[in-house]
C-alpha cells in the first residue's frame, strides 16, 4: 500500500507542474536570500574581528553561503524539470534524472536543517571567543605605540561608546589591568612608584576607567578616577551610583547583538527549509504520477501519485537489501553452494525412484 | 510667432505620447522633491534643541509644498495629453491650461528660489546654531531644572556624534560653569577660591566634559587642568592636538547641513529642467492641436508655437488686459459727463 496516495487527472498534473515551476523559482530567490544572509553574518563577524579570539566560528556563515548557492542551483534545475513536465514528450528527457534528483534534494534539505541548527549552537563558541578576545583587547589598550596594536585603543573606545558597555564583565575589569601606558607616567613621583610597587608584576593599577565608559544619561559630570573612594567626590556613594558609568559588560552587549542577528537568520533558514521540503513533496508527487501515466500508456488518463510505493518499513527494507547487494556483484555466493558442479538436493516434484539403489545387473553376465 | 514648428498628425500623436511619459516622469520627480523636503525637515528637527530659530526650515517647507503641487500639476498634464487627440474632449481644458501654465511657472520659480535660499540662509543658520549651542553649553549643568534636564545628554551626544567640542572650540567650556552646584563641596578651599575668583561667583575651571575626548588619541584622555603643563606628565598644551576634538560644534553642524543641501542641489536642478521641458512641450501640443481643430480637415498639418506674437507685443497685450481688469470697477468719467448733457439737450426742447 502506497504512502499518501493521491489521484491526478491530466489537468491536475499540468497544473501541478506549472505551480511547481513557479514555486521552484521562488525557492531560487529563497536560496539567494540564504546566501546573502550568510554573507551578512560573515561581514558582521569580520567587523569585530579584532575583539574575537581565534575560534572556529566562521563555519556557520560559510555553510550558509554554500547552502544558499547550492539551493539556487538545485531549484533552478527543478524549475527547468517542472516546466518540461507539463509537456508529455519533454518529460521523457528527464525521466531518468528525476528520481536521483529527488533523492539528492531530500538529503540536501537535511543540510539546510543542519544549517539552521548550527546557528543556534554557535552561541557557546561565540561567547568564549568574545571573552578571550575582549580580555586580550583590554590588556593591549595601552599599547598605542606597538605596531599591530596601535588602533586597539580606538576600537575598544568606540565599542564601549557604541554598545554602551564597559569592560569585559563590568567596569571592574579596568581596575585589574594597567591601561595607562608607561610613556605617560612620571616615574619620579612617589605616588606612581608606590602604585607600581603595590603589586607583584609592577603594573600601574588604579580604580579608574577610560572616558568611553562614561554614561551620557548621568545627571552629573562623569566620575572616572577614584571610583571606589567615596570621600574623593562630593555627594557620591560608589555602591548606589548606577548612572555614572555603563553597567553592562561588553561581552554581554556584543553577545546580545550577535544573538539577535543569528536567531533571526536561524528562523529564516528554518522557514526556507520547510518551504524546500514542501516543494520537494510536490515534485515527488509529480514524478510518481507521470511515471504511472507512462505505465498505463495513455497520456490523458488519470494516474496515482504517492510518496512511497510501499509502506515505510518495506521501502527501508528494500533499499537496505539493494545497498547490501551493491557490493556483491563479483563475489561467489558460497553460502548457497554456488558451484554448479556440487550436488544440490533436487527440489523437483518428479519422482525418479529411490536413491542409493545399486545398478541393475545386465543379462550378459549370466 | 515665437519659435514656431510645423506638426502633422503623426508628429502631434508622437508629441502627445512623449509628453504623457514625460509628465509621469515629472510626477515621480515631484514625489522625489517632496521626500527630499521631508528628509531635510526631519534632520533639522532632530537637532532643533541646539538651534535658536526656525528660519532655515523655509527650505524644506518650500520643497514639500512644491513637491505636492508639482505632483498635482503633472498629473493634470498627463490627463490633458490623453484628451488632446480627441477633439470633443480637448476644448474643455482651454481656460484651465492658462491657469496650469501660471502654476507650473510658479513651481519652477520656487525651485530656483530654493536653490538660492539654501546658499543664502547659511549665515542665518550659523547664527541660529551659535545662539542655540551657547545656551546648550550654559544649561549643561541644569539637569534638575524641568525643560532643561536633557540638555546635558543632547550636548554630550552631539559632541560625540559630530566629533566636536564647544561652540567655536573647547575653550568655550572654560568660560561656563558646567558642573552643577549640587556636586560641589562648598567647604573645600579650592572650590571657594574658584568661586571667589570671578564676579558672578561661578565655578570656572580649565576642564571639559568627557564627550570632548578624542578616541583616536594615543594617550588616555586628559579632561582637567588642560592649560597646566605641569599637571600632566609629558604634556604640552599648545602642541597637543589629538587629545580633544579641535573642531567647534557650530562649524561641524553647519558643514553637515550645507553638505546635505549641496548634495540635493543637482537633483533639484534636474527636476527644474524636466519641469520646464514639460511646460514647453505642453504649450506646443496645445497650440498645435488648437490650430488643427480650427482647420477644415483636422488631420492636416498645423503650426505650433510658444507665443503667438513676439515677446514684447505679448507683454504689452498682457499689461493692457490686466489694466482693463483693474479699471473694471471704476466709473468712466468721459461717458458719464456726456450722458447728463445729452439728457439736458433732449429735455430742453420739450419745454
What's the structural blueprint in terms of helices and strands?
The complex is a heterodimer of chains A (366) and B (351).
Chain A: E1 6-8, H1 10-47, H2 59-85, H3 88-139, H4 152-163, H5 190-197, H6 250-296, E2 303-305, H7 312-326
Antiparallel strand pairs in A: 1-2
Chain B: E1 5-7, H1 9-46, H2 58-84, H3 94-120, H4 122-138, H5 151-162, H6 189-196, H7 249-294, E2 302-304, H8 311-327, H9 333-347
Helical coverage of chain B, percent range: 55-70%
**Largest sheet: spatial strand order of chain A:** 1-2
Helix content of chain A: 40-55%
Estimated radius of gyration of chain A: 37 Å
Tally of individual domains of chain A: 2
Spatial extent as radius of gyration of chain B = 34 Å
What is the end-to-end distance of chain A?
Answer: 71 Å
Beta-strand percentage range of chain A: under 5%
**How many individual β-strands of chain A?**
2
Number of helices of chain B: 9
What is the SS-derived class of chain A? mainly alpha
Mean pLDDT of chain A: 86
Residue stretches of chain A low in confidence (pLDDT < 50, at least 5 long) are none
Gap between N and C termini of chain B, in Å? 61 Å
Helix and strand pattern of chain A: EHHHHHHEH
